[in-house]
Design brief:
alpha/beta; 28% helix; 2 domains; 5-stranded parallel β-sheet; Alpha/beta knot; two-stranded antiparallel sheet
């Protein structure tokens, strides 16, 4: 699956997509991530991507021309390689549908996603109306741009692609989310050692932050019931 990310700050993505799960998925050829600089699709010598909003108001608005050209170019290249390529173009917007696991699972069925990252006071509304297939939001808050949402969506979608996760069961919506613990069985907050109740000759304090007893019994049925609760 290919993720095409349109942004005016392409270097933002360098570190994140070169680490952990995303890095391994790319190395295995399970996913491809290509970051496109919107400025590369401008025609003026200053590579201008924004302009003042009609009707006045603060800030600048990203222009439709370079975004339209970028999306068209990406789609045309994909079709030349395979006419049956299924694409979906997404604009990140505060007015978009809230991202959830159902959205990620649905989007994982496409061959490529084109992710448009807005900046400044927003993107020319004609991008939402005529270029993007849908608008997506991470929640009821405002960010400086669409770059972080693009990373969130990329990882959320990639997890549904077979082979990206070590085990399919690692998807939380398969097994449900429950509290997890690991060693030590008892954690003492005082330098990792039991604390004394009183003076030097007093008994060691045996209380600590313990793992629930059921998890260390080895009784799989009881553990399953605990996790279900």
């Amino acid at each position: 699956m290919k993720f095409n990310i349109l942004t005016i700050f392409p270097k933002i993505f360098d570190s994140y997509i070169s680490e952990s799960i995303i890095k391994r998925a790319r190395e295995k050829g399970l996913i491809e991530i290509k970051v496109h600089n919107i400025r590369d699709y401008t025609t003026d010598k200053h590579h201008k991507v924004d302009d003042k909003p009609y009707g006045g108001g603060p800030g600048m608005v990203l222009k439709i021309e370079p975004i339209f050209k970028a999306v068209s170019n990406i789609k045309n290249q994909a079709v030349r390689k395979n006419k049956k390529t299924k694409s979906r173009t997404i604009l990140f917007s505060t007015r978009g549908k809230k991202m959830d696991s159902k959205t990620a699972k649905r989007l994982s069925k496409y061959d490529q996603l084109i992710l448009i990252c807005g900046r400044y006071e927003g993107v020319d509304e004609r991008v939402a109306k005529y270029v993007a297939d849908e608008e997506i939001s991470l929640g009821d808050f405002v960010l400086a741009g669409g770059e972080l949402p693009a990373l969130v969506l990329t990882e959320a979608v990639a997890r549904y692609i077979p082979g990206v996760l070590g085990k399919y069961e690692s998807l939380e919506d398969i097994k449900g989310s429950f509290p997890a613990y690991t060693r030590p069985e008892i954690f003492y907050s005082d330098n990792g050692k039991p604390r004394r109740r009183g003076g030097s000759g007093s008994r060691l304090k045996t209380s600590g932050w313990r793992v629930p007893k059921v998890l260390v019994t080895g009784h799989h049925k009881n553990i399953a019931e605990y996790r279900k609760k």
